[in-house]
Known about the structure:
The chain has six helices and no strands.
Amino acid sequence: MSVFFEYLKAFLVGGAICVVGQILIDKTKMTPGRILVLFVVSGVVLSAVGIYKPLVDFAGAGASVPITGFGHLLAEGVKKEVTEKGLLGVFTGSLTSAAAGITSAVVFGYLCSLVSKPKDKS
């Protein structure tokens, strides 16, 4: 029964984040790119003030998988690298923490481009 509640918490929190994104798409004139940047920056800011880490602890993948979780990952990487390397960690922390995700996105994006056939939107 405990696993069910873990899934339920992840679904509800992740769904709430997605609902916010959908409301922004439907009710504002913001482009998807601006919404993406807003969500990443929100994850960084919420992580910096200490709100996002408890949310990740509570909801697990429901908070760490959406794009706000990427912002949280960047902020946590910078915090860790600053404590270990000082000022240099500001520049290296985000890339070090997100290297696996960025690399897999590039590799799988390239592999998909090899097997797909692009078309115009007409």
